[in-house]
Amino acid sequence: MADVKNLHTRKLIMTFQTILGRNVSLTVDEPREDIEEAEIIAAMNTILGADVFRPYGSQLQELVSAKIVVTDQDKFDLQA
Predict the structure, then answer these.
(1) C or N terminus of the chain, fewer CB within 10 Å?
(2) 18 neighbors 52 (Cβ within 8 angstroms)
(3) If DSSP codes are grouped into helix, strand and coil, which group holds residue 2?
(4) Which of 64, 79, 73 is nearest to 5 (CA)?
(5) Bridge partners of 66?
(6) What is the value of pTM for the model shown?
């Protein structure tokens, strides 16, 4: 019988809008399990204020959304 491996991943996806009106997302792999909304907002405001990202050549202008996406995968080893 083939081996089955379960993979569990978490990602924090932070979405911003640029001054051109385009949405862009930054992803953090495996955020802390106990992260709170206030911490995410503070981090996003720090990113916004630092003005170090210029996607499409334009400045980030505002926060749009944040979410944690949890993915479970069952991988099958078909070589068994």
Answers:
(1) N
(2) no
(3) coil
(4) 73
(5) 14
(6) 0.84
At 16 the pLDDT is: 98
Amino acid at 37: E
pLDDT digits (tens, 9 = 90+) for 14-45: 999 999 999 999 999 999 999 999 999 999 99
Q: Give the mean pLDDT of the chain.
A: 93
Residue 4: the pLDDT is 72
pLDDT (0 to 100) of residue 7: 87
Question: Distance (Å, rounded) from C-alpha 20 to C-alpha 54?
Answer: 11
Pairing of strands 23-29, 4-18: antiparallel
d(CA 65, CA 10): 17
